[in-house]
UniProtKB/TrEMBL annotation:
Domain of life: Eukaryota
UniProt keyword Electron transport present: no
Record keywords, A-Z: Signal
Protein name: Uncharacterized protein
PANTHER family noted in UniProt: PGC-1 AND ERR-INDUCED REGULATOR IN MUSCLE PROTEIN 1
Signal peptide per UniProt: 1-18
Organism this protein belongs to: Hippocampus comes
GO BP of this protein: regulation of DNA-templated transcription; response to muscle activity
Claim: Protease is one of the keywords in the record: no
Length: 64
C-alpha cells in the first residue's frame, strides 16, 4: 500500500504544472504519502520484532 502511495505521489509531481501555482498541492501529497509509508513500515517492523521476541521467549520456556 505504501508503495502505491509513493508511486501516486511521484506521478502527481511529474504531471504537475509549476506554472499554474498548484505545485504546493502536489508537494503536500508527496509528503503525506511519504509520511504514511514511513509510519506503516515502522508499525510493521514493530510487529515483526514483537512476534520474534514472543517466539524466542516461548522457545526458551519450552526448553527448560
Amino acid at each position: 500500500m505504501c508503495l502505491v502511495c509513493i508511486a501516486f505521489a511521484s506521478w502527481v509531481l511529474k504531471t504537475a504544472n509549476p506554472q499554474v501555482g498548484d505545485m504546493w498541492k502536489a508537494v503536500l501529497l508527496a509528503n503525506l504519502s511519504a509520511l504514511s509509508a514511513i509510519r506503516y513500515l515502522r508499525k510493521d517492523v514493530k510487529v515483526e520484532v514483537a512476534a520474534g521476541q514472543k517466539k524466542q521467549h516461548l522457545t526458551t520456556l519450552s526448553g527448560t
